Amino acid sequence: MLHIIPFQLIYPEEIGCHILVDAKVNDIPAKFIIDTGASNTVMDMSRIEKFVVSPNMVLSESMSASVGSSNLTSHVLIINQLSIDTFSVRDYMLILMDLSHINHVFTSLKLGEVDGILGGDLFLKYKAKIDYKYKTLTFRTRN
Prior knowledge:
It contains two helices and eleven strands, in the order ββββββββαβαββ. By secondary structure, the protein is mostly beta strands. It is globular. The longest helix is centred in the last third of the chain and has 9 residues, at 100-108. The chain has a six-stranded mixed barrel. Strands 1-11-10 form a three-stranded antiparallel beta sheet, with no helix packed on it. It has one domain (2-9, 26-140): Cathepsin D, subunit A, domain 1.
């Protein structure tokens, strides 16, 4: 089954753009950046309690690095559900880390904060396609 999801392109600076998508984590609205260069889907450590009452996090064995920041300690968490429009996955493992450097930039540009980053793990597993012309993200599931 194909899930075709609209996204928003934002241009925070004179060069480049970011893709934003509205989602739900455990049925609670969330805002994610799409980053095909990110190895994993990530959520902001400081915002996770908005979505998970008592997060059962496990400290990651390795350090994570992200653009624009130094090495960051990360944690692993399994969320009950991640939904983006008609696309939905259950028991999804993601990485928790400090995204304050990203939210600082977004807030200073009056774009609001993001809750996380959708990364390559999700795109690879569900054979995602990004269509910039029509501003859609497509996921493929077996259903």
